[in-house]
Amino acid sequence: MHALTADEISLVPKIDLSRRLFAVTSLAAGFASAVTPVSAATITTDAEGLDTGEAKVRVHDGEIPAYYARPKGTGPFPTVLVVQEIFGVHEHIKDVCRRFGKEGYLAVAPALYAREGDVSTMSDINQIISQVVSKVPDAQVMQDLDATAVWAKAEGRGDTSRLGITGFCWGGRIVWLYAEHSPDLKAGVAWYGRLVGDTDPLHPENPIDLVDQLKAPVLGLYGGKDQGIPVASVERMREAVRQAGRTAELQVYPEAGHGFHADYRPSYDEPAAKDGWARCLAWFRQHGAR
């Protein structure tokens, strides 16, 4: 896996393992408070034919919890890292893992805010962003995802020579960054991930800034009515990819807004979500992550 540079390491918070300063040591059940009540359209995927549960992923400064789903049997199965929305690894993200499990994958969603805070009980999205999400360093996330891939391989049923990544909203941005980081990744699918924006010491670069470093092809899925990610920024990324000579496809659904895959929220757009899911699976097959 990719070794962190000295600059990247300097951004990772120093944790005193003797004090166990991890805010999240196990995953919460159900949906995050900030997204309740859930929509009547919410999809629930059963675990029939799957092994599912919570794992502990060893990271450089301790352990973070993760949810996994995989077919029953010995495998090894193609592996997909599932990156959470800003609401953490709640029931929707777990359900996405089970959907991948039904497609023959070992899917694993690590709790990438485990050190910074538990967002499952926060009902105010601004509190989630200001108190937790803004404090999660990009370099730390890259390292944790590397560690999750290592866990999948060591677990014995994950084939990380067929490694994919997908993520939503906050996680969509992370997909782009991870595809620019990991030489072991085969393909990524980013659902409405931010491409441009302000930077700070913990988030020093945007996906568009590193496009010439793309190491794996990325499919980006965006809503034409997304108020937070203008179509103009998607077009800027499309042109940047072209100029960099990298492989990426950016699909815009004109009538969809932000969070169109989130079937548990009013933002859900069923035609866009279903088409995006089919494209996601096809992208992984096309680029060796299946």
Describe this structure in a few short sentences.
This protein is α/β, with parallel strands linked by helices. It has a single domain, classed as Rossmann fold, CATH 3.40.50.
Model description:
- This protein is an alpha/beta fold.
- The chain has one domain (6-35, 42-286): Alpha/Beta hydrolase fold, catalytic domain (Rossmann fold).
- An 8-stranded mixed β-sheet has the order 1-2-4-3-5-6-7-8, sandwiched between helices.
- It has 7 helices and 8 strands; from the N terminus they run αβββαβααβαββαβα.
Layout of helices and strands:
Elements: H1 6-11, E1 50-59, E2 62-71, E3 77-83, H2 91-102, E4 106-110, H3 125-131, H4 138-154, E5 158-168, H5 170-179, E6 187-191, E7 218-223, H6 231-244, E8 248-253, H7 270-286
Parallel strand pairs: 3-4, 3-5, 5-6, 6-7, 7-8
Antiparallel strand pairs: 1-2, 2-4
Spell out the key features of this protein.
290 residues; 8-stranded mixed β-sheet; single chain; Rossmann fold; alpha/beta
Q: Mind summarizing the main beta sheet?
A: 8 strands, mixed
In CATH's first tier, which class applies? Alpha Beta
Rg to the nearest angstrom? 17 Å
- Beta content comes to 15-25%
Taken together, the total number of domains comes to: 1
> In the CATH hierarchy, what is the superfamily?
Alpha/Beta hydrolase fold, catalytic domain
Stretches where pLDDT is under 50 for at least 5 consecutive residues are: 1-6, 8-20
CATH topology: Rossmann fold
Looking at how many chains there are and whether they match, the oligomeric state comes to single chain
**Gap between N and C termini:** 20 Å
Please, what is the average pLDDT? 93
E-strand count: 8
